Amino acid sequence: MHTNYELVQLNLLKLRTGQELGSHHNLSSGMLGEESFLTFIKRYGHTNWTIYGDYWFHYGKRMQVDFLVITSDRWLVVEVKHYDGMFEYKDNECYLNGRLMDDNYLSSMDLRVKKIRHIAHSFHPNVTVEGLMVFIHENAEIDIQSDYAFDFQIKLRHQLKGYFARLKRSDRQKMADSYLRQIDGVLNKHRVENPFLPKPISRDQWLRLTKGINCHACDRFDVNFRHKTVICNACGAIERKDAAVMRMADQLRILFYGDENAVTGARLYGLCDRNISKRSIYRVLTKMNINHTHS
Which of 256, 278, 258 is nearest to 268 (CA)? Predict the structure, then answer.
C-alpha cells in the first residue's frame, strides 16, 4: 500500500492540535476504501498479478489511477469509491444522497481508462485494457441512468468476490520478470509526481502544536521517562528513549515535509517538550547522520 503523506501529516496535526481539518475525513475515507479493495484482491485475486497503487501519469493531461492491476491477459484500471449511501448518475451529473457532487466522476473514469489504453498500446497493440469502478462501502448503493456505454464496469462490494474469481480463472499465467520490467519502463515514461504532497507547516501552526512524546502504542502524551526508556502511564507500553527520539524526528519530517532542514536539534528538543536532554538528542542526530552544528 502506498503512503499518503498528506493524510499522515493531517493525522499528526490532529494528534497534536486535537482538531480535524476539513480534508482529513475525505482522505481517511478514501484510504480506508483503498485498503478494503486491497484486502479483497489479495484474498480473491491471483498471486501472479502485479498491482500498482496511486499511479500518477501524464498523457495529454495529468491524471491518477487508484490501482493498476497487471495480469497475464489484461491491464485493469481501478477506481475505488468509499461513499456511504446512494450514488446516482443522471443527466450527466453525479449525486450522493441527493446532493450534487463537484465532478463528473464517471466521465473522468471513462477518460482515465482511454488514456491508460493508449499507454498500454504503445507497449503492445494487443494488450486488453479494462476499467473497474468499485463502490466499496458496505452501505453503498448505485443508480446509473445513462444511455452512454461507459468504458468500464461498475461493481458493489458484494460483487467483488465473484468478479475476481472469474478473472482468476482466466488470468493466471505467471509473467516473466523481463516482461514486467518492460511494463515498468512504459509506466515510468509517463509517470509524474503526485501534486498533492503536503507542504511544510507554518510557524504559527508549529507554535500551536501540543509538544511532548506521544506513546508509540496508544498515542497519549502521558508518559514517564526513565534512564533509557519511555513508559506510557495509560497503556504501559515501553519504548527505548533513542527509538522515541527517532520517531519524533520522523514526525518532524512529515510536519515540515519537503524541507531539507526539517530535523534540527532545536526543533527536536522543542517537539520533545524538553523532556529529552540535548546531549541525548544530538547523539541520536549523529546516528542519523544529521548535521546539528547549527541546530
Answer: 278
Burial of residue 132 (number of CB atoms within 10 Å: 0-12, 13-18, 19+): buried
- Choose between 186 and 293: higher pLDDT: 186
C-alpha distances out from residue 251 to 4, 15, 80, 273, 288, Å: 14, 11, 29, 14, 14
Does this model's pTM top 0.90? My answer is: no
Determine the Cα–Cα distance for residues 105 and 110; give it in Å rounded to an integer: 9
43: number of Cβ within 10 Å: 10
C-alpha cell at 107: 466521465
Residue with cell 481501478: 78
CA distance 194 to 191: 9
Is the Cβ–Cβ distance between 191 and 55 less than 8 Å?
yes
